[in-house]
Design a protein that fits this description.
Blueprint lengths: L3 E6 L7 H16 L2 E4 L4 H5 L4 E3 L32 H10 L4 E6 L1 H14 L3 E5 L15 H22 L1 E7 L6 H10 L3 E3 L7 H13 L6 E6 L9 H9 L4 H12 L5 E6 L11 H19 L5 E6 L2 E6 H7 L9 H8 L9
Parallel strand pairs: 1-2, 1-4, 4-5, 5-10, 6-8, 6-9, 7-8
Antiparallel strand pairs: 2-3, 10-11
Helix pairs in contact: 1-10, 3-4, 4-11, 5-6, 7-9
Length: 355
């Protein structure tokens, strides 16, 4: 039976989104002879009833398929606006566009909104997780996470040489307002001396003592600190952190100022805020593979008429989980007692304390 499938990308962009589109379109065309249309700018495109025709060779450049290694999303994306305020118009658009099913690629916030719409409109929905924060519940991998880690590690590698050459403390601020997966994974892989994440409070005293030990015991005159933008201080440091936030200084800059204070300005610090650099670039091989399998499997779920599901990578394979279960457990935070935290500590990395 012929089907017309819509696909959209919502929330912040990340590498690998185009790989999902590529796989879903190719599989739907070749295996099922279905039509696939892109919805530009996610729910905004639905509201305006816009579609982009998609075919497995629609983006070819003299036989070269650019979607496999192109960052961002060719369909565009939005992560702002009051979508539910226009719910009635958006709900009507699904039927007006003649959609038999919808594939939505997004993080937990985007999936929550789209799932609310799908429930109200009785849409046939399949979700695919993407976020560089890797905080969507029930999946070990979200599209974009691996590429973001590689980008951060590359930055750490470059900064390490400068830090060692000038005896500096280099502070790398990465994304992660509520979840520290990005900081933790990249910090361990990049050889950081300090990793600060939202889930495990730190003290400036403990941090400075660790830096002093590096210099006095191990004769290390430089250090690398990876700090998530949402890293949380212990109660004794809350007032200082709050005043910094009021002044609109970033977490990395706050850490730098506190290190300067506790060292009597003896430690030379520099801050690098990676910002949206973490979202960009060519997707890694792992993100391409994950995105491709997710895109293909999403189409298969539609063929099996299994809806209201999100695809998940668990134990080396793709499974599907009810979206409402995912949303109930998201965001998925770093467990302070996890093996990765224990690994970091065993390597002599300061990851916070509760003193």
């Amino acid at each position: 039976m012929h089907k017309r499938i819509g696909i959209l990308t919502s929330g912040g962009d990340c590498p690998g989104l185009n790989c999902v589109i590529r796989a879903a379109v190719s599989h739907a065309n070749l295996t099922y002879n279905w039509e696939v249309v892109g919805i530009p700018y996610a729910t905004q495109g639905l509201l305006e009833r816009q579609t982009v025709p998609l075919s497995m060779h629609g983006w070819d450049l003299r036989g070269i398929d650019p979607l496999l290694n192109m960052g961002g999303t060719v369909l565009g994306s939005v992560n702002k606006g009051d979508t539910l305020a226009h719910a009635d118009d958006i709900l009507a658009s699904y039927e007006a566009l003649g959609l038999d099913a919808l594939i939505a690629v997004g993080g937990d916030g985007s999936l929550k909104i789209i799932h609310q719409l799908a429930t109200l409109g009785n849409w046939k929905l399949v979700g695919i997780p993407k976020t560089i924060d890797n905080d969507v519940a029930f999946t070990e991998r979200s599209i974009g996470f691996d590429t973001a880690i590689n980008t951060i590690v590359d930055a750490i590698n470059r900064l390490t040489f400068t830090a060692a050459s000038h005896d500096r403390v280099m502070i790398v601020e990465v994304m992660g307002r509520t979840a520290g997966h990005l900081a933790l994974h990249s910090g361990i892989a990049g050889g950081a001396d300090v990793i600060l994440i939202p889930e495990l409070p730190y003290t400036i005293k403990g941090l400075c003592e660790h830096l002093s030990q590096l210099r006095e015991r191990w004769r290390r005159k430089f250090a690398i600190i990876v700090v998530a933008e949402g890293a949380s201080p212990c109660s004794e440091d809350v007032d200082n952190a709050a005043s910094c936030s009021t002044a609109k200084c970033g977490r990395g800059q706050y850490i730098a100022e506190q290190i300067a204070n506790c060292s009597n300005n003896q430690l030379d610090t520099r801050v690098s805020v990676l910002g949206h650099i973490q979202r960009g670039g060519i997707p890694s091989a792992l993100d391409r593979l994950t995105a491709t399998v997710f895109g293909k499997t999403a189409v298969d779920l539609i063929a099996q008429e299994k809806y209201d599901q999100m695809l998940s990578w668990q134990n080396g394979q793709v499974v599907h989980v009810p979206i409402h279960n995912v949303l109930d457990q998201s965001p998925s935070l770093v467990d302070p007692h996890s093996y990765l935290i224990a690994t970091a500590q065993s390597l002599g990395i300061y990851v916070g304390d509760r003193k």
